[in-house]
Amino acid sequence: MDYCERLQKVSVLGAAGKMGSGILLLTAMEMADQLLQNKGQKMELWAIDLSPEGLRGLIRYLRSQVLKAAEKKMVWLRRVYADRPDLVENGDIISAYVEDVLGLVSTSTHLSDAWGSTMVFEAIKEDPSVKVPVLSEIAQQGGGKTWFFTNTSSIPISRLDEQAGLNGAVIGFHFYNPPAVQKLVELIPGKNTLPELVEFARMYAKNLRKVVVPSNDHAGFIGNGHFMRDALWAIQTAEKMAETMPLQQAIWFVNRVSQEFLLRPMGIFQLIDYVGVDVVIYIMQVMNPFLPDEDLHSPFLDALLEKGVRGGQFSDGSQKDGFFKYEKGRPVAIVNPVTGVYESTAPLDEAVKALIGELPGLTWKEVNFAPDKAEKLSAFFARLKGMDSHGARLASAYGRQSRLIGELLVNSGVAQSADDVNTVLKTGFFHAYGPINEYFN
Amino acid sequence: MTGGYNTISLGTGRKEFNPKKVRPGLELYIKEAGNGTLAQIGGAVTVDECVIGNFMASRFNRQAHLGGFIPMIDEALRYKPATRVEGACASGGLALTAGIRAVLAESAEVVLALGVEVQNSVKAIYGADILAGAGWYPDRKAGHAYFFPGQFSNRAGAYFDRYGRETARQGMARWFRNMIENARLCPTAQEYHNSTGDLDALGLSEPDGRSFVDHLNVFDCSKVSDGASAIAILSEEGLKRAGIPREQAVEVVAWAQVEEDITKPPADLTVVSTIKEAVRQVLERAGITIDQVGTVETHDCFTIAAVLAIEAMGLAKPGHGGEFILAGHTSRMGRIPFNTTGGLIGWGHPTGATGVHQAVTIWEQLTGRAGDSQIRIHSDRPFGLTVNMGGDDKTVVAILYKKP
Description:
The complex is a heterodimer. By secondary structure, chain A is α/β, with parallel strands linked by helices. Chain A has two domains: 3-214, 3-Layer(aba) Sandwich (Rossmann fold), CATH 3.40.50; 223-428, Orthogonal Bundle (N-(1-d-carboxylethyl)-l-norvaline Dehydrogenase, domain 2), CATH 1.10.1040. Chain A has helices at 3-6, 18-37, 52-72, 74-80, 90-102, 128-141, 157-164, 195-207, 223-241, 247-261, 268-275, 277-287, 299-306, 346-356, 364-368, 373-386, 390-411, 418-428, and strands at 9-13, 44-48, 105-108, 119-122, 147-150, 170-175, 184-189, 211-214, 324-327, 330-335, 342-344. Chain A starts with a helix and ends in a 13-residue tail after the last helix. Chain B is an alpha/beta fold. Chain B folds into two domains: 2-121 and 225-248, Thiolase/Chalcone synthase (Peroxisomal Thiolase, Chain A, domain 1), CATH 3.40.47.10; 147-218 and 250-402, Thiolase/Chalcone synthase (Peroxisomal Thiolase, Chain A, domain 1), CATH 3.40.47. Helix content of chain B is 35%, strand content 15%. Chain B has helices at 26-38, 57-60, 70-73, 91-104, 124-131, 147-163, 166-183, 199-203, 236-242, 273-286, 303-312, 321-326, 343-346, 351-366, and strands spanning 2-6, 49-53, 82-85, 110-118, 226-234, 251-259, 293-297, 383-390, 395-402. In chain B, the strands form two sheets. Chain B has a five-stranded mixed beta sheet with strand order 1-5-4-2-3, sandwiched between helices. In chain B, strands 6-9-8-7 form a four-stranded mixed beta sheet, sandwiched between helices. The model of chain B has no long low-confidence stretch (mean pLDDT 97).
């Protein structure tokens, strides 16, 4: 089966979800692009989800996103539509492309529509007890021809393979959120994954213009391998600091230092909110049994979730309340972990002023897009070393811890190199620099 | 001519430009520019006739019938003749020649000539479709997504093939730098706020045919702009009526309006033959040579268009336009300063207004009111030349002005 034949019938499971919709969008455009270059082929794409309402929203999302994408690749589209004399202006061609992409997509709430797929992309609940029976059923109905791509961010691929009886026809293909925007894909072959499947997956990722980082099949892979440990360290650090100050103040302090002093795009607790408190807890639960020397678990997060603090995002991409309540994307209030009530962060800024000390005077934005980024970072972290404040000291400790986590991922064989770890954090998490660096020696 | 007025050229580059916010429409620009000129010539009562140049409001703004906006400027313009003229990006130039003709025919003593275009109403990729209307529609299908950049990229490619790339490319980049530097001196220019350090590096950015065109980068291109310009064209009698002393006006010494067949491709991509003919005619009619011209406003919709125009004017031999720019001759301190307020690349290119904007700049320079943009006009070279081009060298208006 060649590349196009493999795309004959593709199903995306969980297609109306945040990850699924992005995967569906990218796959639909890839299929349409292949069809435009290889006329005469037949392809179909099934968007399968339990929610009919979600599927309707998906089509609206697809339409708007394909339109934007088409506007950006007009030079190429004009070439591939050269044989259509009825399409003259850019506007004509863009409309035709949108219809061509949407014309490939059928929506369904029935899993049976995925039967006989040549390729299945799975982006359903991050729970082996949900994933395994679904994959297993499609495999049985597919007569062995279905290849499975799972978007799991934490479950070992070999385990899914074995439990669902997929005979190596599965690979981890982990997009970052949102898939249409984020450049990174972690590619995770299981121990029995078919070599031709790996080869196809690389080609597919390349055609989607993604940066591929291979990860070995260890729970959490590289991205969550770093993020979960990084988050847990931050939580535990805040808890320790709370021996001498109110817990909210400690959380706010750690959040600000992780963003402002480490020059990250958002603070660590904001990142937990972005991913979702419930999702973070869940990923830790999935990973923890595979990590005999660690305890990747936070009772504090459990307690928050019990109070209904979940984080995550609304379907329009805006942030739900988590550790913080947000206005225009910025945290303005922080949850009281005891009462569950949100209190303004303004008084906390006043309270942590002395602790934080001199502010860095440089932001992630100013560094990340600067042409002389490396020089800026070296100069900044050299200055940080000379600062005598709790803020600067916490930042250094945090940076060293982040590096330890990165090294652990390489040493334990999750990542193949320090470069791969750094690429994942820079590309998938938009960090200005990788965790394995010399800044905090 | 006298009483020139330019609105700002609004679009990317201006701090006040926000593509997500509602922006002023045609009405505001027409009104501001019209009133700007009327205030300098004794008000609307002195005006006999109006001409408004516009290229594609019918598509950019879904608005035709622009003559109807003239009485909106001032009630005293009601019931007076108003005509909209169109010749693609030379529409502004046509507004001027239409006004000049009316004055020469003695059907008017005072004509208000205006040009306007509001282009930021659509994304650039759709704007490219609209602007492609300046070409022949049957050529559109085979043309580039960015149609006109594609046409001039082909010209640049042919020029590189014939004369070599290196010097031409550097000349084009220098042109870009000169235009931005000139624009920084003119508060209405679209690139007035430009503070980029290394303009040479930008100008030399390698073109990327996958996302744009093969032989031009985006800095080789003029701006997508909203704006209007206006100027008054008056007879001697008209000047008296408006109470304007001669030294506040420039004299129109000669003009040429030249048309080429839109259905035929250029005979030689490395020559802008219609510009060449228009410049030949205007100089001949004035009885002067190009060496007597003190400053030029040329239609640099693309840097390569400037290179080709310099050659068409006879300032440099074919293949040597880039060298001429690199030698500094066209810079504001050079032998013959070009586009002293930034031209289409630096000041902006509200297509239908551009021809009028060129006239306003020449009027400012020759009457000493160009502010920070002012260059020295030598008494032995008291002439200013404007060259306004529509389409790919199809409609050209060249006007020669003299310092009072």
